[in-house]
What does this fold into?
Amino acid sequence: MQREAFILIAAVVWLGTAQQFPAPLDDQKPNRSSEETAVLAGGCFWGVEAIFERLNGVKDVVSGFSGRGSPGPVGPMPQAEVVKIKYDPSKITYGTLLKVFFGVAHDPTQLNRQGPDEGPQYRSSIFYVNDEQRRIAEAYIRQLSSAKTFAKPIVTTVVLFDKFDLAAPEHQDFVKRHPNEPYVVYNDAPKIAHLEKEFPQLIKR
It folds into this structure.
């Protein structure tokens, strides 16, 4: 009972920051492909993976690392914890994935950290795989910034995807396999509750 009460309270606090979250004005055009890839970094990949694997149109989500050598303020950055998402663009667009990324999966105003996790490996970053994704991501960040959707500046970087290194098996589906892990209860369960409350139409049934 205590666990459920905490999740409810945390979800209400989280919801207060992202009600009526705006959809991107520039989004993916109708696509020929039945599968595309998105690569996103938003802190610890456990919770980010758990969010995106719940979405209708998402075929597969795996946790790993990317971005070694990405430019930083004082030199190349280490790899970031990322999720690689395989999705059907006829069922869910890239822009909708980004809406969930910014509105639910993480806080894009935290620089080189996310909640209790600190360091550049936990940075907020979008790794685009083509020019269309780059255009959509950059336009959406400008849109959210202009609308002052967040109280602080967005620090999310948009960089070209280069290489993906798969995380160890114990990191895959971590939230699903360990729902009562304290880290999951305090950091990831409220985000999942937020997703289910705010975007029920996006969730697999």
User: Anything to note?
Assistant: Helices lie at 2-15, 45-52, 94-105, 131-146, 174-177, 182-198.
